[in-house]
Amino acid sequence: MPSFCDIRMVFAVVVIGELLAFVLVLAGHRAEVWSHLGLVSLFVQLVALTSAAVLCMLRPLLLRIGNTAAAISSYLLLLLITALISELAFQTGGLGQLHGASADHADFLFRNLGISAIMSALVLRYLYVQHQWRQQIQAEAQARVQALQARIRPHFLFNSMNSIAALTRSDPLRAEQAVQDLSDLFRVSLQEASERVTLDDEISVAERYLRMEALRLGNRLSVDWDIERLPRKRWVPSLILQPLLENAIYHGIEPSPLGGRIRITGWAEGKRITIKIINPRAPALADAHRKGNQIALENIRLRLQLAFGEQAGVALSEIGDQFETTLYFPREKMQ
Q1: Domain boundary among 80, 115, 137
Q2: Which DSSP letter does residue 238 get?
């Protein structure tokens, strides 16, 4: 069952209720349309918001009884709430004119219950399908990040181990640091796909990855960080930087005999956080770069939008012989 405690779900209920009020008024052929619309809207929104509040409060109980039982219970609760509010409205007389001045008690109740029975079934079904669709998208995103976490290329592992072995005698302290970096990278790859981390932790993972690659590439790889203006305690989805840096090395640094420089800049301005990754590209491999980079871009874009909505995303641009990848998301609390 969807959560009626979510403000977006409440907004959807209000909008659907108001659309129902318009339909009822337009079908009524009344002379005083606007005054009748206000009366019908008041009644419909009272039923809708009361129903949402009751389903929100009873959500922990409904979650324990299974989907089918929860759907039936929710449906019956909506009918009961409609009956109670209709009875209260008729007795007070203020809303008793919804179906005309001549409507008797039984006619008033049965009409409201009939409309509620049809609309409740449609609305619950619509919200259930929408909720399932969102859950499916989230599951797909988690599956993608799990695949991303598991996709440590064999050559990266072998090269890292060879680099560590070579450093064991010549530079034991650096070899020890490399072992720690490699173990931390594996630890991140084994985390839950839905786990959130601070931006500081995400940057730390990226730095460890770049240090491991620097053991292999040596002077061919140089990195510039300009991230002092980033709010480092901001919570973000895990693995949004490392895959892009991996693409930058795999498609930009490795193909070039002279290597190149990767620049990472980040800042917070207004309500938005922006992180840019700039790396060179080999012209002969431009098409291959674009294809490989789009896989990581789509993955990260999907997870950012699930976390932050449409205000977040990833953009890729080509400036001369360089690629510029931009991450952006809001500073506010995640959804």
Answers
A1: 137
A2: S
Q: What six digits make up the tokens of 255?
A: 């193909």
DSSP string, 134-199: HHHHHHHHHHHHHHHHH---HHHHHHHHHHHHHHHHH-HHHHHHHHHHHHHHHHHHTS-TT-EEEH
What are φ and ψ of residue 47, in 5° steps? -65, -45
Q: Give pTM, 2 decimals.
A: 0.56
Please give the backbone phi and psi of residue 73, each rounded to the nearest 5 degrees, phi first. Answer: -65, -40
The whole-angstrom distance between residue 97's C-alpha and the CA centroid of its chain comes to: 45
Asked whether residue 183 falls in the same domain as residue 113, the answer is no
Domain final position from 82, 107, 137: 137
Closest by CA position to 157, among listed 183, 176, 177, 118: 183
In this structure, what DSSP letter does residue 101 have? T
* 303/155 same-domain check: yes
Query: Could you report the per-residue pLDDT of 93-115, keeping only the tens digit for each?
Result: 655 555 554 457 787 788 888 88
pLDDT for the residue numbered 152: 54
